[in-house]
Amino acid sequence: MREGILLIILILSIGHVEAQGVSIMSYNSENAFDTLHDEGFQDEEYTPEGSRHWSRYRMMQKLKNISKVIVAADTQRPVDIVCLEEVENDSVLTYLTRRTALATLGYKYLMTHSVDHRGIDVALLYSPFTFHPISHNSIRANTTTSTRDVLHVCGTTGGSRQDTLDIYVVHLPSKLNGKESERNRQKVVDAITASTDSIQKERKDAKIIILGDFNDSPDSPLLSLNFKEFTNLALAYQDKHSGSYKYQGGWETIDQILISKALTQLETEGLRYHDAKILKLPFLLESDTQYGGEKPNRTFVGYRYNGGFSDHLPVILYLK
Asked: 10 Å Cβ neighbour count for 103?
């Protein structure tokens, strides 16, 4: 039965790439942990004995919620590529891709194995019917405190007209710890730009996508000065009355998508930019009784289990 479903998806997916293009989503899933303590990492609160009483039921509910977001992201067909931030390890992704609603869609995944003190990483899920990885590597900056690696995946899209995409999945350090954090964030950005510069020297019209949680506004000096050769699509989809993340009553657009010039030029052959937006799916939001309006429907509110999805909203890019 499952093989029959996968065959149907294969046929529909190849036809979609030919006619419509490719969809790429980024989602900070907010602490997608398993229930076990990993030696050397500070993940004890996400164990059954920990402060959040992280049971197998809560873990599976979390993963089912993530799968619901991915399935609902595109009403026409499965999203081709899903970039996830704040996933703990291979166990979590195995459960997600094989024991939730995603099991019938055939997603495979690649992920980093960082030295982040909490043990969280970034990952890329892909449909093997529409995206074919050629290579992947983790980029680790020489920071003074441990943080997440950047995942770089190079691959080709399906269909008779294949395009090569270089995708960087990013979760920059937070702004905590002042100047030290600022220096570390700069080092991670420098490591990304060193990699993209190298690619663009080899391939003049390289189609590069950098996306994820940047923990900063799209018009910040860190991003605007270091990624001058890229178009930050968040500048178009950000809104003062909404965003992808809400902090103390104010919306921010810290989940962003940057694309190289080759994806915006009209003369570009093959895939190019079509649209990008924040996915404001109704079930991802709930009433904000403290500040008014709505806020993301989180898994925890403080240490109170809320059973929701994440403190972030997903963002999605469409190439046609």
From this structure: 14
